[in-house]
Amino acid sequence: MSTDAGARHRDHAEALRAAVAGDTGVTETSLRTAVSARAAGGPPTDGPYDTLARQIGEASYQVTDAEVEAVRQAVGSDKAAFEIVMSACIGAGLTRWDAAARAIEEATDAPA
Amino acid sequence: MRLPEIERGDSLRSRALIRIISMALGARLPDAARVAFYHKDFVGPVLGAWTQDAMRGPSEWSVAERELMAAMVAKWNSCPFCVGAHRAIAVRGMDNAVADACLTDYHTAPISEALRATLAVLETMTLHLTN
Hints:
Distance between the termini of chain B: 32 Å
Helix content of chain B: 55-70%
Number of strands of chain A: 0
Helix content of chain A: over 70%
Distance between the termini of chain A: 17 Å
Shape of chain A: elongated
Largest sheet of chain B: none
Radius of gyration of chain A: 16 Å
Oligomer: heterodimer
Radius of gyration of chain B: 17 Å
């Protein structure tokens, strides 16, 4: 990546991280950031959130209706459930982005 | 399971768009589009802006190459719908045979070495992050 492209994508990544952790949601920011971290392999969180976040992070195609329904019941609305799912997905995605960005940086810093 | 409000749309505009596009397509509007239309106050616009820049913005990779990468990531994520959707765009800029060879086995497909190396990185990032 050229430095321009690198900077552009880094800005996008930070904007996405901020959007998950921001105040435009109906759920608590702390819940979203915990779920996001869990899906990225981070520390356990509570009950149904933990189960769903872990599954999204490890093998999202194996998420079950019951796992989604349990979160939907816990948060009380479709909008809130959506925020939990998206926060987990973005956490899982950004951890991969972070790893790849680090790898690229190390590769371009390495002496020839 | 689908969350009803996402299915339907959460604004007059979204609901109308979902109906009209489905009618024009003669098919159910894909779930990915419904998700993109939903809860626009939250992450949608930011995620969309990055997706647009990554997939269509200035790049040394062609759009077709980027769509092939997306199809491969979808394959590693076990999402058949996404494989199909990205492949369909990829083959507008490359031979069907090349795209399909890549999806079958990128190690031996007739693609550039740069693309092959990139796919190896993408595979590791998608599947083996904890290793």
